[in-house]
Design goal:
The protein is of the alpha/beta class. The chain has eleven helices and eight strands. 40% of the residues lie in helices and 17% in strands. Helix 2 crosses helix 3. The protein is globular.
Length: 259
């Protein structure tokens, strides 16, 4: 385990596995680096995978309350890249991690080689169909694993991957940190600056995502120039884990854009 120092002195836990071009994985809201589980292992066969715990999560320090915005969390991610000696990296963000990834690509364009955004959005929107279903939001706030599982993962995947499922839903985080992550995610709004993203961008989104409905991905594609959208039929919010075929799609995208 390694530690990077954020701008305010907070220690950010990170780890690295595999060889090749660096790939930074940015986890979702209140989710530790361990939540990437089998996806990180798959990706590490082809890339040097760098993972980290957001502030307030897992083994990272909590820092000050005002530092919990997606834009400042992107500053944390940049600090991790620097500590890892990765001047230029592929960036893969899931859910809130995708929002953080957007700011990383906007504010640190020289650090982001390609950007993959899974099950995420550009922020608050009044466009039709972008808001989460009420029942889904209530389940998210409840933290009840039995209510959350069907929103994230295919039932068969959960059955076959009990350890990965448990790890994903049981990241170490205080109620204080969870509340601030939730607020940071809810207040994200990068729509007006998404057009400045220069990194080739791949958008992955499940057609049955009740927490971030598909219209969010359609809007992202409109705002990020040259971006590619891949819809996953029947997938929910946790497609980065229960659809391992996405790893091959990411590899193909990177090979095309980096060649």
């Amino acid at each position: 385990m390694n530690f990077a120092e954020a701008a305010d002195g907070t220690e950010l836990a990170w780890t690295s596995e595999g060889e090749g071009e660096p790939m930074l994985l940015i986890a979702g809201q209140a989710t530790a680096m361990d939540g990437w589980g089998p996806t990180a292992e798959l990706l590490s066969r082809y890339y040097r995978v760098i993972r980290f715990d957001h502030r307030g999560i897992g083994r990272s320090g909590k820092g000050d309350a005002e530092r919990y915005t997606t834009r400042l969390l992107a500053e944390d991610a940049a600090a991790v890249l620097e500590a890892a000696g990765a001047d230029l990296a592929h960036v893969y963000g899931h859910s809130m991690g995708g929002r953080v990834g957007q700011w990383l690509a906007i504010d640190y364009p020289h650090k982001v080689r390609t950007l993959t955004l899974a099950a995420t959005s550009g922020g608050k929107s009044h466009d039709a169909g972008t808001q989460p279903e009420r029942a889904a939001l209530e389940a998210l706030v409840s933290g009840d694993m039995s209510r959350l599982e069907p929103l994230f993962f295919d039932a068969e995947w959960v059955l076959n991957n009990p350890a990965a499922t448990h790890t994903f839903f049981n990241s170490h985080a205080s109620a204080w940190a969870k509340a601030r992550h939730f607020k940071a995610s809810r207040e994200h709004d990068a729509w007006s600056q998404l057009s400045s993203i220069q990194a080739p961008t791949l958008i992955l989104h499940g057609t049955e995502d009740a927490l971030k409905p598909l219209p969010n991905a359609l809007l992202l594609r409109e705002h990020i120039r040259g971006s590619v959208l891949v819809r996953l039929p029947g997938a929910g919010h946790g497609l980065h884990l229960d659809h391992p075929e996405t790893v091959e799609w990411i590899r193909q995208f990177i090979a095309r854009k980096s060649g």
